[in-house]
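## Example record

The block below lists the input lines for one assembly entry, exactly as stored, with component labels intact.
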Amino acid sequence: MSRPVEDLGLLEQQVLLACLRLHPNGYGVTIRDEIQRRTAREYSPGSIYAAVERLEGKGYVERRKGEANTIRGGRAKVHFTVTAPGRKALEDAWRVVTAMRADLKIPELAR
Amino acid sequence: MTNDDLISGHLVDEVRVEKAMVEARFLVVKLMAGTAKQIDERRFFEIMEQIDKRQFGEIVDAVDEISRNERREPPWLAESLLCIFARAKDIEALMGDFEELFARDCASGMSKRRASARYWARVLRSIGPQMWQAIRRVGLLGLIAAALRR
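Predicted structure tokens for the full assembly:
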């Protein structure tokens, strides 16, 4: 098995998946809402941005400045998109989990 | 006096106009408080049309004053705290996200106090991850220096 590009934490994986789902309009609030809606985990915006910072550092996401509106106090959104290395890292992370689950005798996890 | 009275009646005497103004102001306050779906906006503007321009101006001034008093803004201290630890390039977007969530809470009919408490909770939960990232980025001394600069 090839070595993973770089390990991804659970939140990082969730953020990447949310960005893929929301593409091209994923930004802090919608990423947080998407994760909460699908996993019932409520992360703070600060946690999301910390994860995004790590992902940006690894070159897995790119940012694009969006529009500002009055609801946001005139502050612009920042949209995040997953790069090709980001998709690759996500695939690698899944491959690791799939490999570890294979032939497992615990029925609930082997499914 | 009901809305129908205000719309169909002739607002000729000062007492009735005064009552219409009170009603109009009340409806505007409801609009601003985010409970607009409970009133008929078309009727509201019909009422406003029946009030002469001078009095309309008075209402607008009164509403501006109410607006200044009632405007819901997030707690400034929490915002300041957030600025200390957030990455400079993220501050605008992060604060915008916090404000959007705050506005959403207010629009849901939540009291300002509760919306502010939730804002504080989000900020406090954000500080840990943001501080940890900042320490990884610039080190503890760098973080302190950056906080002092801000």
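DSSP finds seven helices and no strands in chain B. Chain B has a mean pLDDT of 73.
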